[in-house]
Amino acid sequence: MRRPLLPALLATALLLGALGAVPAGAAPAPAAGPPPTAAATALADSWTPPLSTRGRWIVDATGRRFKLKSANWQGAQGSWNGSGDINDPANHHDGEKSDQLPLGLDRAPLPTILAGFHDLGINSLRMPFSNEMLHDQRAVPDAAVAANPALRGRTPLQVFDAVIAAATADGFAVVLNNHTNTSRFCCGLDGNERWNTSQSAEQWENDWIALARRYKDNKRVVGADLYNEVRRTVTDDANWGWGDSHDWWAASQHLGDRLLTEASPDLLVIVEGINWQGIPADGFSHWRPTLEPVRTLSHTLVTSGKLVYSAHFYGYTGPNHTGATGMGETHDWRYQELSRADLFSTLQRQAFYVTTETGQHFTAPLWISEFGIGSDEGNPQARAWFGNFVDFLIERDADFAYWPLLGWAGHGSWSILNFDAQGRRSGILDGPDWRAADWRRLVGAPQQSGVVPVSEVWDMLNLDHADAVESASVRARGDWDPGARKGVCPDGQRLIGLSHKDGRGLCTDAGAPGLAAADPKPTAVTDERYVQQGDWAGGYTKYQCGPGQFMTGYSVRGQAVSAVLCAQAGRSLSTQGRTVWFDRGDNRPAGGPGGEFGYGNYKGQCATNEYAAGIAFTGAWAKGKTPDALLCRLI
Question: Of 553, 554, 542, which Cα lies nearest the Cα of 619?
Fold first, then answer.
């Protein structure tokens, strides 16, 4: 988002855990409003919720591609800059005091605002909010909803309910975005750097569960964007996969599974990469990881077809540049200073590879959930960047969300729809605005449409620090190997690859979708009772599935094999097979289908026309009972 420079004052954060729970229950049904407009009816009829994913595409309930053409309706996340009188608009970003509400409710009736959104050509809204807003039980100031008097006397969350109800009734898809812990404008050193900077991780998760349940019955609330621009505090970085309290991969993985199993199985789970690591000073390591770590450690959710990755790009920032000017600025390239070719290759490396490299464990839709520029921007480099970036979005048929959508006329210059104090509209479509041509190109660009074919699914399992039981049916049966770290493929997939150390696994349905029986009767194997058709790994201990079974999971204690988990197939399985050794080097099919799932370790993998039927290991000196071989059999 457009934000203050990095060296903003570090505020003492509000301890949100003391505020109590988000009010329980579903959001109230919307009050009867005016009949839907033609634009609202057309948008509502153009797609059927809920949404899910197929490969790199987001699809609706009929399997048709639904492209997120979005913008950020900001305000409920807070607008205060963090210093000065919070009641003085001068101390709020761009002088726009939001009162923890989506901007504009003081200036125009909701139907008028939504009509402007339709005119812009968008079909979806990213709705930022703060955790503080969720808990605030004070009635909003009457002046904050002056143009919508029916909203007087409500709490900020109740107004948020009403806005979401109105937007979804008009056909818009809504993505909830946890933008900040506290209600102040993002994003610098502001106490909102991580999901758990000013609150506990438990509070963060519980707020999300309550909010997802609140909107569960509104199927046009389609996604949960888990946290905005995770970044460094003064003293520490967030990380990707270290297993500590600052591990964004683990936190987002855990919450994503909870949302799908405890709150709303229909939601898209949207995960943004890490926005910044390191000390932003020349001579110190620093960078913008974005989604680069996903290449070797992606998410596998308990419900397949629900993961979307996201990233933010602004011209004044860069792959190693915070966007600061003066203090906190480094001598690194900004995106707008890159050549067109270098910009495109950088965007591909940092984020867009997840959509273009298909058939990988990291393949997923990508939503560019923030980008933007001001109407008063006079820097030729910045203007060129915006045009080039729009070209790239069009070329990649990318889902997008512009920042910000709505503002007060005469205040900030970045918004694309504005209202003045008398409710008169202005914006990118209403007068001279150099951005208008690029905007029209973007929303009107040719795109993939129609039914998207079902694609092969690849997922990875990570047992580095905890269980990765991503099968809903296995979870329902309880702990099948107490005390061990366990990995189980999502329902509908089979285990096809393992790493020699560190407990990484690879799952897929490639070559055999629907392989499992209706009741797969998962069986934990901890001995050699099912070894059959000869000794396929002489001198090694072999844990093998029984007749008609295939591997869906495994467990380890430390680095040592503890058990394999086998599922019953719904059809007969061949016993013709081979031993795939990987104790001294990689042994994978040509091209490494599925991607790098065990970086830094040897890996073994069956072919896509095979299933894994067993693991071999040894406790000989210096071997440590780590996986050494797979039994791969033809499907």
Answer: 542
SS3 content of the chain, % helix, strand, coil (to 5): 20, 25, 55
Q: Containing H/E element for 174?
A: strand 173-180
Distance CA 432, CA 155 (A): 38
Print the SS3 string covering 507-559. Answer: EECCCCCCCECCCCCCEEECCCCCCCCCCCCCCCEEEECCCCEEEEEEEEECC
Q: How many Cα atoms within 13 Å fall on the side-chain side of residue 131?
A: 33
Residue 590: how many CB atoms within 10 A of its CB? 6
Going by the DSSP 8-state scheme, the letter that residue 352 receives in this structure is I
* d(C-alpha 118, C-alpha 162), whole Å: 18
Both tokens assigned to 590? 């040509």
Global pTM reads 0.95
DSSP string, 328-363: T--SS--GGGS-HHHHHHHHIIIIIHHHHS-SBTT-
CA atoms within 13 A on the CB side of 329: 10
Whole-angstrom Cα Rg for the chain: 26
Could you tell me the two tokens for 380? Answer: 């030729």
Segment 259-292, tens digit of pLDDT: 999 999 999 999 999 999 999 999 999 999 999 9
Give the pair of three-digit tokens for residue 553: 């999971």
Identify whether the C-beta of residue 631 lies closer than 8 Å to the C-beta of residue 613.
Answer: yes
Q: Is the pLDDT of residue 618 over 90?
A: yes
Phi, psi of 501, rounded to the nearest 5 degrees: -140, 165
The predicted structure's pLDDT at residue 428: 96
Across the range 120-135, mean pLDDT stands at 97
Query: What DSSP state is assigned to residue 181?
Result: S
**Mind listing the pLDDT tens digit for each residue in 284-319?**
999 999 999 999 999 999 999 999 999 999 999 999
Q: Can you tell me whether residue 220 is helix, strand or coil? A: coil
Contact status, residue 110 vs residue 148, Cβ threshold 8 Å: yes
Give DSSP secondary structure letters for 44-96: HHT--SPPEEETTEEE-TTSBB---EEEE---TT--B-SSS-TTSGGGBGGG-
Coil, strand or helix: which one is 205?
Answer: helix
Structure tokens at 594: 């599925």
Which residues face 224 on adjacent strands?
176, 269
Q: Which of 634, 467, 458, 456 is nearest to 554 (CA)?
A: 467
Average pLDDT value over all residues in the chain: 94
Q: How many CB atoms lie within 10 A of CB 241?
A: 16
Q: Which amino acid is at 556?
A: V
Dump pLDDT digits (tens) for 389-437.
Answer: 999 999 999 999 999 999 999 999 999 999 999 999 999 999 899 999 9
Cβ count within 10 A of residue 478:
7
Q: Under DSSP, is residue 160 helix (H, G, I), strand (E, B) or coil?
A: helix
- Integer Cα distance of 411 and 618 in angstroms: 70
